[in-house]
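Sequence, please.
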C-alpha cells in the first residue's frame, strides 16, 4: 500500500518567518501563493487516484485539500493526530526571535527547533509527535489503492523519523509546500520511496 504525504500550501506565517505550529489563526491560513500551489497539484492528485484521503483538521490543510481534490471523490477522514506540532510559547514568534532568544534550541540548518526545546517552551517533544504520527500510520487499514494524507511539515519529518527508527531528526529539512513524500506499508513494515518531491 502506497501512502502519499502532502504538506499544505504556503501560509502568511510561512512567508513571514513566523512559527505557526498548530495555530489556526489568520496568519496560519493559505496565502495567494499557497492557494496557487495547491491548485497546481490537482492533476497530480488525479493521476495518483487515491482511494482514501486523510487530512489534518487545521484550516490550511482543509483548504489545501479542497484545492487539490479536483474530480477526485475519495472519502475524506479528518484526524487530529495529523495536526502540526504545538511549539508552546514559541508559537506566534518569529524565527529571528527564536534564534536570538534561544540559540541553543534553534537549528539554523533545518530552520526549526532542536530536541529538548520543550523544556523552555512547554511545547510538544519530537518523541511525542513521532509517536502520534506513527500511531496514525499504523492505524490506516490495508487496501489496494493509494492513500493521500494532507498534513504539515513537522508531521512528514516525524513519519520519516519513526519509519527509519531515528527518534529525533533535527537536521532533516522540512519538505516544500505541497510536495509529496511517498512511503509504503507491506505486512506492517514501512519503506520510504522519496521525500519532498
Amino acid at each position: 500500500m502506497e501512502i502519499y504525504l502532502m504538506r499544505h500550501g504556503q501560509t502568511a506565517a510561512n512567508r513571514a518567518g513566523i512559527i505557526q505550529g498548530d495555530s489556526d489563526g489568520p496568519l496560519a491560513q493559505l496565502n495567494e501563493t499557497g492557494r496557487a500551489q495547491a491548485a497546481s497539484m490537482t492533476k497530480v492528485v488525479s493521476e495518483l487516484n487515491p482511494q482514501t484521503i486523510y487530512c489534518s483538521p487545521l484550516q490550511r490543510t482543509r483548504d489545501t485539500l479542497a484545492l487539490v481534490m479536483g474530480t477526485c471523490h475519495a472519502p475524506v477522514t479528518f484526524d487530529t493526530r495529523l495536526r502540526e506540532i504545538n511549539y508552546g510559547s514559541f508559537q506566534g514568534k518569529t524565527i529571528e526571535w527564536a534564534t536570538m532568544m534561544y540559540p541553543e534550541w534553534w537549528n539554523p540548518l533545518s530552520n526549526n527547533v532542536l530536541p529538548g526545546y520543550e523544556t523552555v517552551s512547554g511545547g510538544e517533544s519530537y518523541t511525542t509527535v513521532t509517536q502520534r504520527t506513527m500511531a496514525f500510520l499504523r492505524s490506516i487499514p490495508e487496501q489496494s489503492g493509494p492513500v493521500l494524507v494532507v498534513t504539515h511539515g513537522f508531521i512528514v519529518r516525524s513519519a520519516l523519523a519513526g519509519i527509519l527508527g531515528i527518534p529525533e531528526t533535527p537536521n532533516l529539512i522540512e519538505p516544500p509546500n505541497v510536495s509529496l513524500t511517498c512511503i509504503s506499508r507491506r505486512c506492517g513494515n514501512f519503506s520510504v520511496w522519496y521525500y519532498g518531491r
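The chain has a mean pLDDT of 95.
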